[in-house]
Specification:
The complex is a heterodimer of chains A (376) and B (301).
Chain A lengths: L4 H16 L21 H26 L7 H18 L4 H23 L4 H21 L11 E2 L16 H24 L1 H11 L1 H6 L4 H27 L1 E2 L1 H4 L2 H14 L6 H20 L2 H4 L3 H7 L2 H15 L3 H14 L11 H8 L3 H6 L1
Chain B lengths: L1 H31 L5 H18 L7 H28 L6 H23 L4 E2 L9 E4 L2 E4 H23 L1 H11 L1 H6 L4 H27 L3 E2 L3 H16 L4 H22 L8 H16 L10
Antiparallel strand pairs in B: 1-4, 2-3
Helix pairs in contact in B: 1-5, 1-6, 1-8, 1-9, 1-10, 2-3, 2-4, 2-8, 2-9, 3-8, 5-6, 5-8, 6-8, 9-10, 9-11, 10-11
Classes of the chains: A mainly alpha (376), B mainly alpha (301).
């Protein structure tokens, strides 16, 4: 296994720095997303913690999107499964924490295998549509409030009676929840990294680049793709559990919509698909920027702006859509791709083999070209 | 039995709207490999175009004429938006099918958000003739009049589309392109024009679908989110029918419309099953993919 020393050192340094943030009472005006301008205020820590959760989701999603070349629009199915199964076990059934975690893991794994196995029967765009349909079905299901379990549209607030007091959502516990989110990100990151560097991970990249060739080598791509789908989904399910502990309530429109799926795709595009650190940076940055925008659009000075500026800015989905378009046209490799390009330019050569793949090159492979179709 | 017949009729009408949405998606995918998420936006904008023009008519305009104007505006609006989408956003990305998909996702998100910001979630009402709200007696069966309109539109579009694709020069180029795009360009046909054309046709049908959906199924209320809601079912129809097949879309649209309607009525009466109709369509999709991964009418390659 090749260990990129510098990358690992930077990663460890960033994690240590992040772990120290709750002790840093720095006063930073204007750019913090919380209501207070102090870095370690409860509001800021909580937003940062959620950004770590989405950093982890983006990281897991990139296993499927960037490394395997599969565009799934069903990632929120697995995220919302983590949120809802954990919530139902604790709140509706009053199970213990350990039992709730166990059933969430079991359901999360089972659902990933079943939905993955069905969806992966088709390839390309049909896979995208099928995953989208499953996620939408789950959204309908929790909206429906079967047996009064999910609370329907209003959602289900987490009951903290069976939780250790350190994990209950009180403001005084923001620090411990922050560290929990950071720890989850580190664990998810390690799992994804080990997976990508393993022989399975190398086969996945080969599947993405040329599936027919992998088959010629005597390997069945289906099993490898299912492994990628399962890992990606399990990270999302775990992230759902941490998200619920942080936010304290499960609402369908916050955790199970197609918009959230698309936001996760944007996170990966923003950071750069199939690049170490790209997806996680994109996830954290996206959540930070969105929270900042929500804060800015709520300020009184904002209401004074002309409608042409105010209406689009007050619609986060408008900006989400605009970022989509701008990145596809102008920054196809995301931040990681841009960094690599700049570095290559300084070195005066073309980017080496370690160069992160651009979104275009990943995406071009998602749909088999016409000639591939004829051949298969 | 009378309930069953009424349900069947309503299910066919729903299927007709699904067909209008799905056939355009299917053609665009068949020719260009693009999964067009902006189709949801075409549907929504079509309905809003119809509403907008109707509000500018004098109050004395007969309601039937108003509706005719709405239909024309929706078709023209959908076609125009589709034309702009193809020329401005899709054309620069030829050869990068998935970048095109992502752009259509971005467009749909942005435009729907702007409509939400400008008009609110559910505030506008589309004027329709009173006749739409009444029902026709066929023996002991009550058939809602609005359903006739949706059904008629679906049948007319199916017939016209089949004629266009089989009997006209442009239609034959499109069909040939769906079969084998490289061969068609090698023969010197300008496939780029066919791309624009399928977008315009798809957009026109989507605009009509959006307007009819509002007039027939939402109690005349316009919502910026309605197109995206329809789009999910249109996707399901396209995959079940087989990507690229118009007849497949027609058959699958009827099957999905009927299934959804029956399941909603017979299953939705039980508490906690109000979404059973929507869920059943996804289960059908899973089932069809297990048996025929390429859909009912998809060609095995």
């Amino acid at each position: 296994m090749r260990v990129p020393r510098l990358g690992l050192a930077v990663g460890v340094a960033l994690v240590v720095l992040a772990a120290l943030v709750p002790y840093l009472g720095l006063h930073i005006p204007a750019v913090l997303p919380g209501t207070q301008d102090v870095l370690n205020s409860a509001g800021n820590l909580s937003i940062l913690a959620v950004s770590f959760v989405f950093g982890a989701v983006a990281l897991g999603y990139d296993v499927l999107f960037g490394y395997t070349g599969l565009l799934s629009l069903g990632v929120v199915l697995h995220f919302a499964t983590g949120v809802y199964v954990f919530d139902i076990a604790l709140t509706d059934w009053h199970w213990s924490l350990a039992a709730a975690l166990a059933i969430t893991a079991a359901v999360g794994l089972g659902l990933a295998l079943v939905v993955g196995a069905i969806s992966l029967r088709v390839t390309g765009i049909a896979f995208t549509m099928v995953t989208l349909a499953f996620a939408q079905a789950f959204y309908f299901l929790i909206q429906d409030n079967p047996h009064g379990l999910t609370g329907g549209q209003d959602g289900l607030a987490l009951s903290t009676t069976r939780l250790p007091s350190v994990l209950s959502g009180a403001v005084s516990n923001t620090r411990s929840l922050y560290w929990l989110a950071l720890a989850f990100l580190v664990v998810a990151g390690a799992a994804v990294w080990i997976f990508i560097e393993s022989s399975v991970g190398h086969v996945l990249v080969a599947v993405r680049d040329n599936e027919a060739r992998v088959e010629v080598l005597g390997l069945r791509p289906f099993g490898f793709k299912l492994a990628a789908y399962t890992l990606s989904s399990l990270v999302a399910t775990g992230a759902g559990v941490v998200y619920l502990l942080l936010i304290g309530t499960a609402v369908p429109d916050a955790v199970a919509t197609t918009t959230l799926t698309l936001a996760i795709v944007v996170m990966v595009m923003l950071g750069g698909a199939a690049s170490r650190g790209g997806a996680v940076t994109g996830g954290i940055l996206y959540w930070y920027l969105e929270s900042l925008l929500v804060k800015v659009s709520g300020q009184p000075s904002f209401a004074g702006l002309p409608a042409v500026v105010r209406v689009p800015l007050s619609q986060p989905q408008f900006l989400l859509g605009a970022i989509f378009i701008l990145f596809v046209f102008f920054v196809p490799g995301g931040l990681a791709g841009t960094v690599a390009r700049l570095r290559a330019r300084r070195a005066g050569g073309s980017p080496g083999p370690g160069h992160p793949v651009t979104a275009h090159s990943v995406l071009a492979r998602l749909v088999p070209s016409r000639s591939d179709k004829e051949a298969s | 039995m009378t309930t069953f017949l009424s349900l069947t009729f309503a299910g066919l009408a729903l299927g007709a709207v699904y067909f209008l949405a799905a056939s355009g998606l299917s053609l665009i995918y068949g020719l260009m490999d693009i999964l067009n998420f902006a189709h949801g936006m075409f549907m929504t904008l079509g309905a809003y175009a119809g509403w907008d023009l109707a509000t500018h008519l004098p109050a004395t305009t007969p309601s039937v004429l108003t509706f005719a104007v709405e239909v024309v505006a929706a078709i023209a609006g959908g076609a125009l938006v589709a034309l702009l989408t193809e020329v401005v956003f899709i054309r620069p990305l030829y050869g990068k099918p998935l970048s095109q998909v992502l752009v259509t996702i971005g467009l749909d998100l942005a435009v729907v958000a702007l409509l939400l910001g400008g008009f609110g979630a559910n505030s506008l009402s589309l004027p329709v003739p009173l006749w739409f709200l009444e029902a026709t007696h066929a023996g002991s069966v009550l058939l809602p009049n609005a359903d006739f309109i949706a059904l008629a539109a679906g049948v007319v579009v199916l017939v016209v589309l089949e004629w266009f694709l089989r009997r006209t020069r442009f239609g034959i180029v499109i069909r040939a392109g769906v079969e084998n795009r490289e061969m068609v360009s090698a023969l010197g046909v300008d496939v780029g024009r066919a791309f624009t054309l399928v977008f315009v046709i798809g957009g026109a049908m989507a605009g009509l679908a959006g307007l009819l959906y509002t007039a027939v199924f939402t109690g005349d209320l316009l919502s910026p989110l309605q197109g995206d809601g329809l789009l999910i079912f249109a996707f399901i129809v396209v995959v079940i029918g087989g990507l690229g097949s118009i007849r497949g879309s027609a058959v699958a649209a009827v099957v999905v419309g009927l299934l959804q309607d029956y399941a909603n009525y017979y299953g939705g009466q039980h508490a906690g099953f109000s979404e059973i109709g929507n869920l059943s369509t996804v289960l059908l999709l899973a089932l069809v993919l297990e048996v025929r991964p390429r859909g009912l009418f998809g060609r095995a390659t």
